Structure formats: structure tokens, C-alpha cells
Amino acid sequence: MLTRLFVIVGGLFVLVLLAALVVPPFVDWTTYKSDFEREASAVLGRPVTVHGTATARLLPFPSVTLSDISVAGGPEGRGGSLTQALAKRAIDRLSALKRALPKARGQGG
After folding, report:
1. Are 48 and 69 in contact (CB under 8 A)?
2. How far is CA 33 from CA 29, 57, 66, in A?
């Protein structure tokens, strides 16, 4: 009886993972652009506009990808210094991740 319960729970878990992999591409995430704009504006403290599309996925890690984004308020209204700061932050995070991966695998000291 316990084995049957484990099989049922395992089967349900596999179905949930499969749904998390298959369903997001079929959802029109572009309808949520205003929500993404509002949250990004709140985080950055500057108006953010999404002109392009939005896509999302749940596996292997949750992520939202927005295309054609403009951030107001940089030099001459182009957002230059903010764009450079965000690029530097992204590079710093990738560098930290690159250093952390060998340690997480037990290869570094």
C-alpha cells in the first residue's frame, strides 16, 4: 500500500514538473508588460518602458525575458550611465558565480 502511495505522489510530481516545462511558452506574457514596467520602475527609481515582447519560463530556473526596454533619466535622456551601471552589475554577478561554481562542486578552496 505504501509503495502505491509513493508511485502516485511521484507521478503527480512528474506531472507538475512537466506542466512547469510545457505551459509557460503558451502563455501570452506580453499582457503583463504594465506589471513588469511598474515593478522595474519601482526598483530602479526611474520610468521603465517595455516596447517589445515578454517571455517567461519556470525550468531550469524561473526567469522573465523582456525585449526592447527603455529606461528614462540618463545623460541626454538616453539612460547611458544607468545602462553602464546595470551592465557592470551583471558582469560582477557573473564573475562571482564563476568563482563560486568550483567551490560548490568541491573543486576549489
Report:
1. yes
2. 7, 15, 9
Q: How far apart are CA 81 and CA 79, in angstroms?
A: 6
Query: H helices within the chain, ranges in order?
Result: 2-22, 33-44, 80-104
Neighbours of 97 (CB within 10 A): 10
Of residues 96 and 70, the one with the higher pLDDT is: 70
Greatest mean pLDDT range, 8-12, 69-73, 97-101? 8-12
Task: Say what the pTM is.
Answer: 0.51
Q: Are 47 and 41 in contact (CB under 8 A)?
A: yes
Alpha carbon distance 52, 75 (integer Å): 23
Query: Which DSSP symbol is given to 31?
Result: G
Work out the percent of the chain whose per-residue pLDDT is above 70.
66
Tell whether the model's pLDDT for residue 87 goes beyond 80.
no
DSSP-derived 3-state class of residue 81: helix
